[in-house]
Design goal:
The protein has a four-stranded antiparallel sheet, with helices on one face. A hairpin with a 4-residue loop joins strand 5 and strand 6. 58% of the residues lie in helices and 15% in strands. Helix 1 packs parallel to helix 4. It contains four helices and six strands; from the N terminus they run αββββαββαα. It is an alpha+beta fold. The longest helix has 38 residues. The chain folds into two domains: 103 residues, Ribosome-recycling factor (Topoisomerase I, Chain A, domain 4); 68 residues, Gyrase A, domain 2 (2-Layer Sandwich).
């Protein structure tokens, strides 16, 4: 019974960290990656569709992303979607291909992106703490229903706290790594 709660708790905490890492991937670092446009949705015959499902997205060099649509008539829609996504650049459309030129980041931009990363990390920590709260409530319910003793309840809550501390440390580690990436010139 308790083992199932521990496993479920660890799994949910890991999912919170994975979600944060996916969000981190959309942040720009010194070298531009194609994940910067992952959240861009293109109007594909009336359906919002991920950009990488209607075009080939490649990193041409450290500051340029190239987008080659599979259907040429999508160029204006892709261009419009990129402008609406507000990723900090204007698309250059040459009729066959769209290029996104990212200027080198200023110190202020880097600091702003670090703030965003810290916000994402804090959101992940809140999610982990909410998972801890749910697990502790389940344990207390078991104790109240006399399915486990008070000692077992205390030990189980201590174990949940250890899981929380471990996952919070993993979040801090990931944030520190991402911060270093962003600030590296």
């Amino acid at each position: 019974m308790l083992e199932a709660i521990f496993n479920e708790t660890a799994e949910h905490m890991k999912k919170s960290i994975d979600s944060m890492k996916k969000e981190f991937a959309t942040l720009r670092t010194g070298k531009v990656t194609t994940s910067v446009v992952d959240h861009v949705k293109v109007d594909y015959y009336g359906t919002p569709t991920a950009l990488n499902q209607v075009a080939s997205v490649t990193s041409l060099d450290a500051t340029t992303i190239g987008i080659s649509p599979w259907e040429k008539n999508l160029l204006p829609d892709i261009e419009k979607a990129i402008q609406q996504a507000n990723i900090g650049v204007n698309p250059n459309n040459d009729g066959d291909f769209i290029k996104l030129f990212f200027p080198p980041m200023t110190v202020e931009q880097r600091e702003q992106i670090v703030k965003q990363a810290k916000g994402m990390a804090e959101k992940a920590k809140v999610a982990v703490r909410n998972v801890r709260k749910d697990a502790n409530n389940k344990i207390k319910r078991l104790e109240k229903d006399k399915e486990i003793s008070e000692d077992e309840s205390k030990k189980a809550q201590d174990k949940i706290q250890k899981l929380t501390d471990e996952h919070t440390a993993l979040i801090d580690e990931a944030l520190k790594s991402k911060e270093a990436d962003i600030l590296k010139v």
